[in-house]
Amino acid sequence: MSQSIKTIIKERRSIKKFNGRPVEQSDVTAVLADAAWAPNHGNREPWRFIVAAESGLDAIRTTMKECTIPNWEALSPEELDKKIAGFKLPGAFVFVVVPEDARQKERLEDYSATSALVQNAQLLAWEKGIGTCWKTPAWMDAPKFRTALGVKPGERILAMLQFGYYDELPKAKPRTPIEQKITYFRK
Ligand SMILES: Cc1cc2nc3c(=O)[nH]c(=O)nc-3n(C[C@H](O)[C@H](O)[C@H](O)COP(=O)(O)O)c2cc1C
Q: Which residues bind FMN (predicted)?
């Protein structure tokens, strides 16, 4: 029986320890196709994706190493191994790219719509037994990395969305009781 949306929302966890098993590109594409039903103002569909899966997976790991680790050639295999630990285990990467509209309202709407898409993708992947983590390392904005990915001026990488399989389910990060976050408006 399929799980309810409530169950999937509440049981999804950000997965930070993947087990190294690759994620098929067709699974990532299917997740993104469904996630794209996110609400978006003016139907601008303000998103595009750079997907690194299957043969792209080794390529992106090399690119990340070359673009984000200074003097990586000078490091010993052990030092390098430590530095690239975060790149090695995810089974696919999706870089979610949003236009940076010069108008603030449109820019914020586009970020919001694309964030809704990212959450959709995390839930859809979870339903398939695939974990995700939305990551925003500072090096995503480094010119060398942006150029390597083909990100153009006027675009921003909103998320590095890691996909992968996992062996251990992380504990839930408890949420504040919602009553503490709600003001019921009355006249
Ligand atoms: C915009 C955004 C950026 C995030 N960036 C990172 C990140 O750079 N590194 C990381 O480990 N987790 C990152 N996360 C994931 C959060 O750490 C995670 O969602 C939070 O700990 C709650 O855990 P849960 O998703 O399992 O409920 C990010 C989440 C969001 C929404």
A: 12-14, 41, 134-136
* Three-class SS state of 108: helix
Rg (C-alpha) for the chain, rounded Å, is 18
What separation in Å is there between the alpha carbon of 14 and the centre of ligand 1? 7
Tell whether residue 48 is among the known ligand binding residues: no
- Which atom of ligand 1 approaches the CA of 16 most closely? 11
- Domain positions in the chain are 5-181
pLDDT tens-digit map of 46-105? 999 999 999 999 999 999 999 988 899 999 989 988 888 888 899 999 999 999 999 999
Q: Which residues line ligand 1 (CB under 6 A)?
A: 13-14, 16, 133-137, 173
Topology adopted by domain 5-181 = NADH Oxidase (3.40.109)
Q: Is 112 annotated as a binding residue?
A: no
Is pLDDT of 187 > 90? yes
- Chain centroid to CA 2: 24
HSE (side-chain half, CA atoms, 13 Å) at 140? 18
